[in-house]
User: Fold this.
Amino acid sequence: MINYNEILEKDELGRDEIRELLAMSFEDAKQLFKKANEVKEKYVDKKTYFRGLVELSNYCAKNCLYCGIRKDNHDLVRYIVSDEDVLKSVRFAWENNYASVVIQSGELQSPAFTKRISSLIAQIMEMTKGEIGITLSLGEQTLDVYKEWRELGARRYLLRIETSNRQLYAKLHPNDELHDYDRRLQALRDLREAGFQVGTGVMIGVPFQILEHLVDDIIFMRDFDIDMCGMGPYIEHRSTPLFKFSGSLLPLEERFFLTLKMIAVLRIIMKDINIAASTAMQASDKLGREKALYAGANIIMPNITPGVYRDFYKLYENKPCTDEQAEDCLNCIEARVTLAGDSVGWGEHGDSPHFKNRMNSDN
Ligand code: 5AD
Ligand code: SF4
Ligand code: FES
Assistant:
């Protein structure tokens, strides 16, 4: 019999212990979630912060084998949200005290794209008098581009490593210079150098993934000393090359359960970081985000993309909130947060305490 209590009381967890926790049964995992919830309360408070999510565009230059908006999927309508509509959405978030927005899109690297984002950041800063926190999720860019966006006022950046295992990365992506593991890793380092609060994350339950890869992912995030994390279960999309491996996957509820355990273990190890209850959690379980909050997550990203575009930003199938308008998500989500026993950090930036502590110890 494994003594989980003993593991959960330890100050530091080694590889074997992380593996034991990730392999816990449904019954045993209750202790894990309870412990993660206690750590969350102690280090980041039982508050959930909202980041209004704008899905700026589903154009993407890349061809990740799992993603519904990959370049070679011609079975969807491509869109770009106009500056005016982005500003309208951001205004909604600002006026409703969200305090932060995330600008996300497919990956494009071009001077025109850089310029448009720079201009958008400047307009958002001006409109909100610099009050709203800006998080970017716009993929791999050069160090100079990251610096430009940081200097204009964006504070955080999300770039998932997707998997920290090089061999697995190569199985999930085409093998060319556009999808290079080392380049992605370098981008994470560049973001750090440019002064961003850096978030990364992985997908859970992708084809060919084994438990050991997930243990590596936790260790990767710890050793990289990330400030934020967003993880979610892999959800197959029929218009992607990986769909043909759907038969070899864990059932979706197991991918979901494994993601909950990943969140809890990460919370216990990296006590003061921000962890998102991702939309993919909600897509795989009706109470997905509530459960993620209980297991240690403290960030939710309500969709504020104008309703007309929502149906087209489909990285995976069964994505929630595609029929809603921003107001609907606002009403729905506060009730959900309360249900999970948290309160909403209205009007607070909710920077990761980890980032502040890291800055203090660097100085
Ligand atoms: N299932 C779950 N998550 C996905 N993503 C892309 N495709 C899928 C999928 N089929 C995630 C990736 C990416 C993020 C924006 O969405 O992790 O970084
Ligand atoms: Fe593009 Fe991101 Fe999808 Fe890859 S995961 S195809 S980079 S949107
Ligand atoms: Fe969008 Fe519930 S969060 S409708």
About this structure: The first helix runs from residue 4 to 9.
